[in-house]
Amino acid sequence: MNKKQKKTLQRIIIAAILTVALALLFHFVALPWFVQLILWLVPYLVIGHDVLRKAFMGIKNGEVFDENFLMAIATIGAVACGEYSEGVAVMLFYQIGELFQSYAVGKSRSSITALMDIRPESANLEDAEGNVSVVDPDDVEIGSIIVVKPGEKIPLDGKVVSGESTLNTAALTGESRPRTVRPGDDVISGCVNEEGILRIETTTLYDDSTVAKILDLVENSSLKKAPIENFITKFARYYTPAVCIGALVLAFVPPLFLGNWLDWIMRALTFLVISCPCALVISIPLTFFGGIGGASKCGILVKGGNYLEALSKTSIAVFDKTGTLTKGVFKVTQVIPINGKAYDLQMMEYAALAESVSNHPIAKSIQRACPDLDPRRVTEAKEIAGQGVKAKIDGHWVLAGNKKLMDAENVNMYQNGEGDGKFGTVVYIAVDGKFRGLLVISDEVKPTSKQAIIHLIVQGVHTVMLTGDSPRVGEYVAKELGVQEVHGGLLPADKVEWVEKLLAAKRPRTELAFVGDGINDAPVLMRADIGIAMGALGSDAAIEAADIVLMDDDPAKISLAMRISRKCMRITYENIVFALAVKAACLVLTALGITNMWWGVFADVGVMVLAVLNATRMLNTRNYQVDSSEK
Predict the structure, then answer these.
(1) Does residue 213 or residue 261 have the better pLDDT?
(2) Considering the domain boundaries, does residue 216 fall inside one?
(3) Given this model, what pLDDT does residue 168 score?
(4) Would strands 198-202 and 186-187 be described as parallel, antiparallel, or unpaired?
(5) Boundary-marking domain end, from 144, 174, 203
(6) Which pLDDT belongs to residue 527?
(7) How crowded is the C-beta side of 112, counted as CA atoms within 13 Å?
(8) Are residues 187 and 243 in the same domain?
(9) Which of 42-51, 202-211, 212-221, 268-277 has the lowest mean pLDDT?
(10) 609 occurs within a structural domain
(11) Which of 28, 148, 355, 610 is 20 to 30 A from 471, comparing alpha carbons?
(12) Burial (0-12, 13-18, 19+ Cβ within 10 Å), 345
């Protein structure tokens, strides 16, 4: 509880004690009305002076119709009608409700501001002589050496120069599993160094670091309101003046025909208390705020309430394959020489040397399969886009690529065994125009991918995979994971085209989500209704292009995010229906004279407290954590 909340609580306690004391006093002692008025004004002003001031400032600034105005008019009217205790009690219970709401909002906000703990306060900068000084992270330039001691947060993104340790990434990913780093490994800001001393060469400025981008994303998420939040704001703007007019009509029209002015004025004042829309205006944004905060604790960064609402309506989930459902780490899984041998070392050396001129992931995997070769053996080399590599090695012309390259070079190929790409991507090798054999390159599926697809299908989501890999490889992976629809051999532009087709075919009032690695899928991420990126522990492209970022690259978090979003919308609609139903019933009963001011207090403060309590359920994400048995 903060300082302001403690002061409010003190005022509530003082006002409550005075109210009870005066009620007991006037029960046993009869005093003149003006003495009673003066005595009752003491607790009234103790508890309600700030509401009166805000109501006055609202009228002065032209913003008349808010909850402060309604409470001020209703309680002043009750006191003017001689109902001193009811006027004080209404203000007292209103302030109790406001305190409770303030505490609940603060608790919800803490779930997001806990992320602010990842903000580094300082950096240990090492100079050329090896001296270390403590500086502001903003003052550290790219290429500087910083020292991170055990227990300290890494202040900037960089590469480990020396030292070995484990990093706690829980604040970024929601996962407690530590990550081991050694010299040469990339590290990102916000992680906590748990063991050894690390010397890190910085690769970004603080403003461009992962921690700065994440904090900016979370801090601004509340600015993007969900459509239903905007609706409630507009609704309250018209609703409040309407009920004020209704109260005036109730106060002055029926008495003209039925008499008993005091009774009808009290009904009108009760009408005003009941009509206060704060239960909706407070609980709906609080629900979305709690949803975003709860998701962030699980390593799911949602850029705004609008994306959280859209996610709950998802009917189609489209996935990229490499780096999303698979690890994106290729390795040579089959070597099939044409000569029938179990292994052809020379063919592997030629393939690795030829691919040494390429930075493609498949080329890198071939290089890793046959390391420590002398690159000077390659005298000429040319990378042919979309086909492969042509290189002169040890005086021989070597081709390494797909069928298009072999056809273009008039190489006569012979199929052999299972090396047709059923389980991966095929690289054909030819030496001096003669087919030598082939390599099969496979990408490992992520452990949680299958469960992610199963959970989405159970939630009624149609799953689609779009991949640039060959159709046969795509179909094999899709079948293994249970993906319902797959399209392979696609370029980035082809993926956008397929997303356009799926958008046109989706059910009305539903959304399409695209899940990619955020690097080469940026165009599709931006075209989809909802872009979900594998954050790769801080990928710039992912954070920039996507609407939702999964910080630990776990596809199982997609169904988790969807369950959080659907729970958020369910609670939102529960609060709307409950608040409007209770208020409508109480307004009718008040107009008929069946209920009094105490029912008005329940219909306002009681409904608000119950709605806020319901909204705070979004803070509980424990039951929504991914089951470790699924990993």
Answers:
(1) 261
(2) no
(3) 80
(4) unpaired
(5) 203
(6) 87
(7) 25
(8) no
(9) 212-221
(10) yes
(11) 355
(12) exposed
74 is a domain residue: yes
Distance, first Cα to last Cα, the chain? 39
Question: Residue 40 sits in which domain range?
Answer: 3-112+223-288+567-623
Q: What is the pLDDT of residue 73?
A: 81
Higher pLDDT: 52 or 293? It is 52
- Neighbouring-strand partners of residue 165: 181
Give 589's contacts (C-beta < 8 A, 6+ positions apart). 595, 599
Percentage of the chain exceeding pLDDT 70: 87
pLDDT of residue 474: 86
Query: Helix, strand, coil shares of the chain as percentages rounded to 5?
Result: 55, 20, 25
Q: Write the CB contacts of 356 (distance below 8 Å, at least 6 apart in sequence).
A: 363, 367, 373, 375, 378, 381
344 and 424 share one domain: yes
Question: Is residue 211 a part of any domain in this protein?
Answer: no
Find the CATH number of the domain harbouring 144: 2.70.150.10
The mean per-residue pLDDT over the stretch 469-475 comes to 82
Catalytic residue of the set 320, 529, 547, 553: 320
Within this chain, do residues 481 and 515 fall inside the same structural domain, yes or no? yes
**In a shared domain, residues 374 and 394:** yes
- Check: CB of residue 541 under 8 Å from CB of residue 518: yes
What is the domain count for the chain?
Answer: 4
- Give the three-class secondary structure for 526: helix
| Domain termination residue (choose one: 381, 416, 444) | 444
Residue 631 pLDDT grade (very low, low, confident, very high; cuts 50, 70, 90):
very low
Which CATH number goes with the domain that contains 358?
3.40.1110.10
Q: What is the pLDDT of residues 173-218, one digit of tens each?
A: 655 567 788 898 888 888 888 888 999 999 989 888 777 776 666 6
CA proximity to 601, closest of 77, 89, 18, 22: 89
**Residue 96 CA, distance from chain mean position:** 32
Residues 53 and 196 in one domain: no
Burial zone of 75 (CB within 10 Å; 0-12 exposed, 13-18 middle, 19+ buried): buried
Identity (one letter) of the amino acid at 287? T
In this structure, the answer to whether residues 163 and 227 fall within a common structural domain is: no
3-state secondary structure of 183: coil
The reported pTM is 0.70
- 320 as an active site residue: the answer is yes
Residue range 396-452, pLDDT digits in tens: 999 999 888 998 999 987 654 444 445 677 899 999 999 988 888 888 888 899 999
Closest-CA residue to 11 (of 43, 51, 52, 58) = 43
Kindly state whether residues 333 and 437 are assigned to the same domain. Answer: yes
Model confidence pLDDT, tens digit, residues 282-334: 778 778 877 887 787 787 888 888 899 999 999 999 998 888 898 877 888 88
DSSP state of 222: G
Q: Distance (Å, rounded) from C-alpha 51 to C-alpha 57? A: 10
Measuring CA to CA, which residue among 118, 94, 285 is closest to residue 216? 118
CATH assignment of the domain containing 522: 3.40.50.1000
Residue 598 has pLDDT above 80, yes or no: no
Residues 423, 462 within the same domain:
no
CA distance 20 to 86: 12
Say how far apart CA 310 and CA 329 lie, in whole Å.
32
Instruction: List C-alpha distances in Å: 556 to 466, 545, 613.
Output: 18, 21, 29
